[in-house]
Amino acid sequence: MPKKLRQALRRCSISLILTLVFFIVLSQRFGFVPPMGKFLDPFQGFWQNAEAFQHSTKSISLNGLQKPVDIVFDSLGIPHIFAQANEDLFFAQGYVTARDRLWQMEFQTQATAGRLSEIIGPAAIEYDRHQRRLGIPHAAQLSLELMEKNPETKMALENYAAGVNAYIQSLNTASYPLEYKLLDYAPEEWTPLQTALLLKYMQWTLSGANDEMALSNTLNKFGPVFIEKFYPLHPQGVDPIIPPETPWNFTPIAKPNVVNTFTPALVGQWTGPDKHNGSNNFAVNGKKVIGGGTILANDPHLDLSLPSIWYAIHLHAPNYNASGASLPGTPSIVIGFNNAIAWGLTNGKDDVLDWYQLKFKDSTLAEYWHENQWKRTTPTLEEFKVYGGEDIYDTVIYTHHGPVVIKPGEKAFDNKMPPAQAMHWIANTPSNELLAFIHINQAQDESSFVAALAPYNCPAQNFAYADKQGHIALIHAGLFPLRWTGQGRLISDGTDARFDWKTWVPATHNPQVTDPAREFISSANQDITDSTYPYFLAADFLDPDRGNRINQSLSESESLSVADIQNIQLDNLSLHAQLILPFMLQALDTLAMDEIYRPAIADLRHWEYHYVNQQAAPSLFDLWWSNLYVSIWNDDFGNDSTRYIWPTKARTRQLLLEEPNSLWYDDLSTPEKENLGLLLRRSFLKAYATLKSQNGNYGSNWHWGKIHRVNINHLAHIPAFAITNLTPGSCSDCINAQRGTNAPSWRMVVQLGKNFQAYGIYPGGQSGNPGSPFYANFIADWSNGKLRPLNFPNKTEDLKSLYTLHLGAH
Amino acid sequence: MNLLILIILSALFQWIGSWWAMAIPAFGIGFYRYKSGKNAFSMGFVALACLWFAYAGYLDIRNQHLLSTKIAALLHLPNSIWLIGVTIIIGGCGGGLATWLGCEFRKLWDELSLLLQDKATIRPETSGRAEKSETMDEKNIEPSIEPNNNEDAL
Predict the structure, then answer these.
(1) Half-sphere exposure (CA, 13 Å, Cβ side) for A695?
(2) How far apart are CA A788 and CA A344, in angstroms?
(3) Partner-chain residue, chosen from A9, A19, A719, that has the shortest CB–CB distance to B108
């Protein structure tokens, strides 16, 4: 072969190899590194998601619409859909929600279905297996079958899905949402099952955790007297959601009478539900409202994420006119108002999930002991497709109670689940909450609202209601097992049929109140009723401070405006601090003489219990209390304190005020005998030293605004897409409860009647695209406590629009 | 001229196809227009770098750097200017490599056809002419077979 040819061949081979390697390597995703060439390509890659600040009006023709639909976007990016039939309304809702939130909708449902490893890879296998073990995908399938039996929900689901799919079909690789490009995958076709999955996801978020394991362990360690004293069925100082004088207008059915003698086995490491999260809703009527009518307010608190949990939307059709917050992936409005009524939700915190300690015949888990006989379990095989890995399989074992989430000997996935126990969760029973929401959206008065709630099972919610006729109501809605008193507070005996759920509390017997004498209704996740209510729903509600503060604020005021109501939502006074700080300060009398501590103690004495950013007192009090709380209980619960549930903040406060000489103050880890005064001083000095070492000398560096932070993470935990270090100037005990990543996910205030006005805001933005100016544009106002006026036009011409989408029928 | 043609063609190809579609016109230009690998690579690099810079820059300015700032952080780059830099380098390398490949492939092609020609008709003149043109190209003295050489493109 000639030399020149050889040379040319060599050069050609080198260039060919280099070129191929370059294009192939940069078209591949490596772990979480996106395919760089594809990703950085301005024609198809992420640059295409760098949305322009200007939007223009567009006309689009779509298959599946009966008649043309106009979608008018206002200056907030909120779509107002004007359709001529409900079918088209839900179609357009699906279309426009997918346009703004497609990736979020799909990602959440894939996560719920335990299919994340298809996208993420082996790192998500454990998570996926856990989802399948919970039986959630299976429960979603059962609920879907029920929803499809009802013509109304079937219509809504199918048209919504058709709308989502019309949008997906309009996409190409250049217009895929950003996250698809980052993880290098493509959207699937949307099915009604995904809506069912999304509803399960919310149900699990709001009703999937309770204190059973921790309370069982605590009983094991301290005995029943301790439980009775520190975890009472009806704690002191609670103003229940349903005012105590409310009569029960029904004849109760008899509940079983069982004396629980079962002692559950000690279960392992545990992390329970966060007791500091909380939602509020309230409504006022009568002479409490300036200008007449009613005012309703709601701020449901959730773990925040971006894209936001909620998508604001207005749905308008001949028999439909509702506006408010919707769940991306679900037709209808979840929290909002229509032309006649407004409604808001807080989590009920009822116990609708029980754990059953099982006795298996052998390690095959094929049979378990129940009602004096061996019963067969039902194994189901689950398949997992894994991105960049082999398919794997897992068997989920079902008993008549429910799935065995952690098999004997297995390690719990998230430290929340006990091994060798079956989970009976109410949402494993099929239900049709979607029908309730569609009917609520169209309800015109209280009777139609109450009727709408009939199919509502889970998660149990406190529905606050107000209408333009001047009525207000609070309805505790949900399906509840008929329990003997205390049933399900502890781990149940899975061999004993007396622990099984046999029947339900009739829905008409659920706690509710209409137009109470005090002219307001409210709820803040506290106890629902006093001890006169004939059924046992649950015992471990949140501390009553927020609820008491709301009721105090509403009782004190005679005439309230929308602005006053907004201020109550933003209230940052800590009732806890107000009740306990004066007592705590008494112990510091001698310390206050000390030159070093004098300024700080003086500031604490003058503090008015508001968690404002520009004061150091809240920082010091907050840490002082935390140290005190830990120093009281840590020694008693021992090293593995996470196994147990400590008495709540409010119960500990009660101990301090009522039993200043209690033996619980002695620190068992020291030979000396501590009293409360010593504990108070010690914890104060510790807090002072900590703040000093972290923030320097006492002064503006100690300000609450420099210490308290709220963060909003991206749904897939991509730090660059998160918004962090917000300083809301609030605390976890305040009405405006904010801590960590948990904060008001939506704030709404609506005045009904002749002075109709509506306001709302949520921490995020309408667009799910991190490259859109509408991605996080509400956050600054939300953090500063400003609400935005919500438009509620009757026709397209009534609205000053940013741009319009005309959807035409083919 | 070559540069302009490549910019327009790769824009068209990328509009329709995937990001690697740029390699098709780049290869073509390298094949038909270049005798020097180095020059081919430079021109291809500059063409695609210009194209990606212009389009990404336009999208970025229109978006007021909102997304590029976030993606820069995601990729651990100091700011969006660096991100544009990386974009340019990747686009440029793609264009450069494919143009270079086109050029080298042409050279191999020429050598092969020469060899086949030599085997079919052993005529000293032909072989001598080819020999001469090859030498000239390597020295880069005058345009080779194609009228436009790299110089005027750059």
Answers:
(1) 19
(2) 17
(3) A9
